[in-house]
Amino acid sequence: MTTQFPRVVLASSIRFAAVLTAVGCSRLFLRHVLRDWNLSDHIDTGELVMSELVTNAVRSTGVTDPEPKWTDIKTHHVVGVQLRVIDTSLSVEVWDRSPATPVKQAQAEDAESGRGLILVEAMSKRWGIHRPPAGGKIVWAEWDLSEPAKPAKDRPHVPHRVPSIVRAPHGQTRDMATTALVQRVLSDLRSLDSPSWP
Prior knowledge:
Elements (H helix, E strand, L loop, with lengths): L8 E9 L3 H16 L6 H19 L16 E9 L2 E8 L19 H8 L2 E5 L6 E8 L27 H20 L7
Antiparallel strand pairs: 1-2, 2-3, 3-5, 4-5
């Protein structure tokens, strides 16, 4: 059996302290990466999906005080964010250390929050939960691209800079987030040989 490799495989990830300001920082990260990949048409949808997934991750495992003190942020308060393209499929993935399955909740029409996964489902082709061997969970959403991404080759790589208030603390949980996100990429690349891959 000859393995067919995808035309385009791109991945970019970052870790944040699991605090509410990680939501805005994750949107900035998404904007930067999608512009670099020449996928600006997907920024609006991506920002909405990213915001909902990161908000859920912070609420699940982070510090929800809008003005946290340094002493509130512990080494286990980490969320990982990853953007991925395989061929013509774009994925937004958010890792947190909790194994608990997020639940879609029906909300009253006038509710101001709680529609996160309902919005994610409406905005994406498909979404789900991946449980990486490293632990925790990755909640992901995926949608189709009309054509493969075309990263700009003439731009120098600029490392992502994270403001200190949302920089993921060093420690075992940060390492677990990094490993889990890489495992997710490997899992999907392996599944390309599977007949069930869409």
